[in-house]
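User: Let's play a game. I give you a shape written as tokens, and you guess the letters that built it. Ready? Here's round one.
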């Protein structure tokens, strides 16, 4: 079997040697090139043809964020950011900006081979490199086709009274960049609480929340106890815990992973379907696997409304595609069209509710 070619960009000779050892021990992978600076990486990548890049962020000269931007704009190659989870100050936001620039995931740097966590961190790193190497970054031409429910069929939101009360979003690989675009387009006056599940290495969740708070128009809160969501705030599932809605309150749940994920989009969506019924609005964005699909189906069956990102813009069509195949999706839309559609749905349903109440 042909091995997956990995390029390592890391300025520390000690960490680079550890990465080479870790990757070299995995029979699926081989190190095809190393670079100690971003400038060297940009030169080497032209002739080394890696399948995936393990990218450090804190580099001398040009940092890993700018290197990611340049690679993604000239010769897109799957990039996995390998960063320290203890970065502080301006450096703490750079891994998240790299995700926004096109990197596919961010992982912790492995610790020494004698450390108790080495095997776990090494396994996670190698598995992510294998998975991300298979992502095709050349996007197809955007499709204008959408898949909509007939407004006159039972189950269409327009046939039911009430108003949307909450928006739930789930995403994984490619999610941070998609989220920023979606949330910015919704605007600061968006009238619903937003509940979010983003698959991410647990040690980076707090940093992700802080970064998201600076780039989207809503305050961001990691749910750390029981709370009642209010409009104008984004509530992020905590690390290694599910996020549930119960009697209008958000709760943490340490139950088993669902679709290999904790937090799980399916757990969130299923709780929204049970608690909100016709007033639930669910959106499933880019991501690997099938998490969120069954939950989205519950929302649709309860009379709520569901949207999945179309294949034409999804970095990875796994999660949205699984939902489409289940019949869980009211509409599939390219990413730029999702926010305008949400705003239209929210305003139209609110108006319809006011008319029925009048």
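Assistant: Ready! My guess for every position:
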């Amino acid at each position: 079997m042909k091995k997956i070619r990995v390029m390592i960009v890391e300025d520390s000779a000690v960490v680079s040697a550890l990465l080479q050892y870790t990757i070299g021990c995995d029979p699926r992978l081989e190190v095809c090139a190393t670079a100690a600076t971003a400038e060297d990486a940009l030169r080497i990548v032209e002739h080394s043809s890696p399948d995936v890049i393990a990218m450090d962020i804190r580099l001398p000269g040009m940092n890993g964020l700018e290197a990611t931007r340049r690679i993604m704009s000239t010769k897109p190659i799957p990039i996995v950011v390998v960063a320290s989870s203890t970065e502080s100050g301006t450096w703490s936001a750079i891994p998240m900006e790299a995700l926004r620039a096109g990197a596919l995931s961010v992982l912790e740097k492995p610790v020494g081979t004698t450390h108790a966590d080495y095997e776990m961190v090494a396994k996670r790193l190698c598995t992510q490199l294998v998975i991300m190497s298979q992502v095709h970054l050349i996007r197809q031409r955007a499709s204008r086709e959408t898949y909509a429910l007939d407004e006159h069929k039972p189950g269409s939101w327009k046939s039911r009274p009430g108003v949307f009360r909450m928006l739930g979003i789930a995403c994984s690989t490619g999610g941070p960049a998609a989220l920023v675009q979606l949330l910015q387009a919704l605007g600061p006056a968006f009238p619903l609480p937003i509940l979010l599940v983003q698959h991410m290495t647990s040690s980076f969740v707090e940093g992700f929340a802080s970064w998201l708070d600076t780039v989207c128009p809503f305050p961001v809160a990691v749910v750390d106890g029981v709370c009642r969501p209010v409009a104008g705030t984004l509530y992020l599932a905590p690390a290694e815990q599910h996020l549930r809605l119960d009697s209008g309150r958000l709760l943490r749940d340490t139950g088993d992973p669902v679709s290999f994920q904790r937090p799980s989009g399916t757990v969130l969506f299923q709780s929204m379907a049970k608690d909100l019924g016709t007033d639930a609005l669910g959106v499933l964005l880019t991501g690997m696997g099938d998490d969120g699909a069954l939950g989205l189906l519950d929302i649709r069956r309860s009379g709520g409304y569901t949207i999945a990102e179309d294949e034409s813009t999804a970095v990875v069509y796994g999660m949205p595609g699984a939902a489409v195949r289940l019949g869980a999706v009211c509409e599939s839309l390219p990413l730029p069209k999702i926010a305008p559609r949400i705003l239209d749905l929210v305003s139209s349903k609110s108006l319809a509710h006011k008319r029925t109440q009048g």
